[in-house]
Model the fold of this input.
Amino acid sequence: MELIFYGAAKTVTGSCFLINTGATKLMVDCGMFQGSKKIKERNYGDFPFDPTDIDFLILTHAHIDHSGLIPKLVKHGFEGQILSTGATFDLCSIMLPDSGYIQEMEIERKNRKLRRAGKPLLEPIYTSNDAYKSMKYFRTIDYGLMVSLNDCISARFIDAGHIMGSAIVELWIKEQNQTHKLVFTGDLGNFNQPIINDPNTVDEADFLFIESTYGNRLHDDDNRDKEEILYNIIKETFEKGGNVIIPAFAVERTQDLLYSLNNLIEKGKLKGVDIFVDSPLAISATEIFCRNIQYFDEETRIKYEVSGECPLFLPNLQFTRTAEESKQLNERKSGAIIISASGMCDAGRIKHHLKHNLWRQESTILFVGYQADGTLGRRILDGEKSVRIHGEEITVNARIENINGFSSHSDQRSLLDWVGKISNPPKKIFIVHGEEESSLALADKINQIFDIETVVPDYLESYLIKEDLNVEPVTIPEQLISKLTIEELRGYYKELIDKLDSMITDYIDEEKYNELYEKLRAIEKLAS
Ligand SMILES: [Zn+2]
Ligand SMILES: [Zn+2]
Done:
């Protein structure tokens, strides 16, 4: 079978992997690329594969970097089945139309300029209507249930403990009377996360595809003391007469924060504070959470049953749905906790709150989630002294804080622990869904600790899994070549020759010479 990495390879977003058995084409995730302008380009134009060819799409969870291009897939002719858990379906039914609406608004803004310039207009990647249409291809499957997709492929979801409904995918694929097991972790949750269960483990896998968002980092103390740190930040900010602005993903992070704030209120620490959730999507997601009590962990379920009320609806909580209500928050100078999306600050209402609070040294901007390269959130967190928001230069005077403990991803230690629990270890581990240095760091650790071979695949790279379970890279993907200009290809060739030259001069290890020789022979074969 062939594996192709169409996203989340040496980057966090755009999760999309294709398995081609010859008879069946099965895709895991179809996510949107987020972050820098260059990476977002990949969302536009045609897919690097034919959507009409795909038989099944297995969706690990509802986050847009995993689900966000589903409406585009359907718009471009996909007619197969989309398999997900029930909660993922519920969440996608609000997140995908919301994403479509964002595309429409973005294009409308660009088209206004193009119209004035007399240039041809652009089309959105998809509309909210396309998103609604794509929902009919979903088929929901409970955790732990083994389903056969056809004679050769079976699949099972187990709890990934990342967001409500998130799943690790186990796939059994039969080829020439041999069955191979592939496991995709999707995003693997942080242990002891509020509301949902801890990630499940798997017994065995022939090939593992593991995320590496925090492959080179540890959450450490933040994990233990996050509510205490949160409390201190709020207290100190209010004493100075400012607001606490929290950019948070609408799904899971917002609800985790509400849960922690509720704990602080119940302990009598937070009194009389005004908490605002200023994101229509986060409000709808919170309602979906409260309807899906079967996905809660025991602690949260008991809390719900004892009080008879969803622990996410806390006193003093105000949901601001309309743009008018949201704008009123701009007048608010102190004593407010404002949780708003997007989590990485590159769209949505959070930008208004940043505009009104970033320049004020009394206020605090509190990050509680991953900030991808190139996003406004990352730039603020990296200490930029001035940023542009809605075309206006805003100076950064506010206190900038970051609590890693709210992360809904495993850190390096938890990822390694998780791998260590596989009693029948994989033949090879593909490290995905991480910035390059993060994926490489995790790959190194796995090599050292478990002596398992690892691969950090690149965008559009493909691999053949042979009958004897050996894995062979398919050199330079065709799609990549067709996109390069001849000058780029020549530049690449020159660089490569230099690299090879220094490799030959510097190597002292005989085995490496042979390895290099084999690889050069493979290129020679490709050229002839
Ligand atoms: Zn996720
Ligand atoms: Zn993700």
User: Anything to note?
Assistant: The pocket of zinc ion (ligand 2) is lined by residues 15, 63, 65-66, 187, 433 (CB under 6 Å).
